[in-house]
Specification:
about 190 residues, alpha/beta, five-stranded mixed β-sheet, three-stranded antiparallel β-sheet, 3 helices, globular, ARSB, Alkaline_phosphatase_core_sf
């Protein structure tokens, strides 16, 4: 409901800079539901679920598609098999085509490191980071599954590798908070859905 105030909107009201990096799952049927209209100064991430971790495309079979409004929420292209595929990676409202081949967990951690280097740690900030991991599809660079070769189930190995990659990214974010002077005045809440 657009009449309900979200946490970033309330924090902006009292002087916080607000940034969202990662998954946005609170609507994109019109611009009014997207992060930069719901209280975030910046947004770097994706709107839907189950996007490819490396290409950042989302595939879906549409039985019917009203494309008159699609330009604001996705870049639909015809794909084989009756599917529509689109790039589901945004820098604010603009599709970001520059990250093809970059694993999303690395990409989001790098974005946060850059963001923290460009701001004054004395200015209050709310940083919301819903990583894509560990959401389907199960995908991770092979180096993260190597410690789990003893596990017979390949899905479990991949899942554990994804958790390890996310853990590494969280460590990068915490280290960036320290290096840039943000850490000593931070509250970090780590949770899952």
């Amino acid at each position: 409901d657009l009449q309900l105030k979200l946490l970033p909107q309330a924090l902006k009201d009292v002087g916080y800079q607000t940034h969202a990096v990662g998954k946005w799952h609170l609507g994109f049927c019109s611009w009014d539901y997207t992060p930069t209209m719901r209280g975030f100064d910046t947004f770097y991430g994706y709107y839907t679920g189950s996007e490819d971790y490396n290409t950042h495309h989302r595939s879906h079979v549409f039985e019917s598609c009203n494309t008159s409004n699609v330009d604001h929420c996705s870049d639909l292209d015809d794909a084989p098999g009756g599917k529509k595929e689109w790039l589901d990676l945004r820098n604010n409202k603009t599709p970001d085509r520059s990250q093809d081949g970059v694993y999303s967990t690395y990409m989001f951690a790098s974005y946060i490191e850059d963001l923290l280097r460009t701001r004054n740690p004395e200015d209050p900030m709310f940083l919301y980071v819903p990583f894509q991991s560990v959401h389907a599809p199960l995908m991770v660079p092979e180096k993260y599954t190597e410690p789990f070769v003893h596990i017979k189930n390949s899905y479990r190995r991949t899942y554990l590798g994804m958790v390890s990659a996310m853990d590494e990214a969280v460590g990068r974010v915490v280290e960036a908070l320290k290096i840039t002077g943000h850490y000593d005045n931070s509250v970090i809440i780590f949770t899952t859905d």
